[in-house]
Design a protein that fits this description.
Layout: H1 9-21, H2 23-31, H3 38-52, H4 60-74, H5 77-89, H6 98-111, H7 114-130
Helix pairs in contact: 1-2, 1-3, 4-5, 4-6, 5-7, 6-7
Length: 138
């Protein structure tokens, strides 16, 4: 592999995107690229995944927590679910625990509102149950 200095912004972004979201999600996302959305996929890979996720100020774990809280604030629950899954499945150094996710949602309850947090608990709870990380509903 060539050095990161010779990689394009897109390629560097794709390395970060795959590290954070996993190959399966990125492959699915890029497979759905078409003439209508290809420029958007390119844009987010270069800017979100290279320019932002590639910055050294915060590690992936901190960025994961920030994204979760932002998605709750925006009530972007599909994206929230994506990042809950990615956080639970991520590399050991940036992997989130159920308690990490719970703490983000509890803080969001204060700053984003109880209804937003209530729904986030429901979404995250379904994922945690699916992964066997909390008990099934009774």
């Amino acid at each position: 592999m060539s050095s990161s200095n010779s990689m394009s912004d897109y390629d560097k972004g794709m390395v970060n995107r795959r590290r954070v979201l996993g190959d399966a999600w990125v492959d699915k996302s890029t497979a759905s690229s078409n003439a209508f959305n290809a420029e958007f996929q390119n844009l987010i890979t270069r800017y979100a995944w290279n320019e932002v996720w590639g910055r050294p100020a915060f590690g992936d774990k901190t960025r994961r927590l920030m994204v979760l809280s932002t998605m709750i604030a925006l009530k972007a629950y599909e994206e929230f679910a994506l990042h809950v899954r990615a956080g639970l499945d991520g590399p050991a150094e940036s992997r989130l625990t159920p308690d990490d996710i719970k703490e983000v949602i509890l803080q969001a309850a204060i700053y984003c509102g109880v209804p937003a947090a209530n729904h986030a608990f429901s979404v995250a709870g379904d994922i945690l149950r699916e992964k066997g990380l909390i008990a099934a509903k009774v």
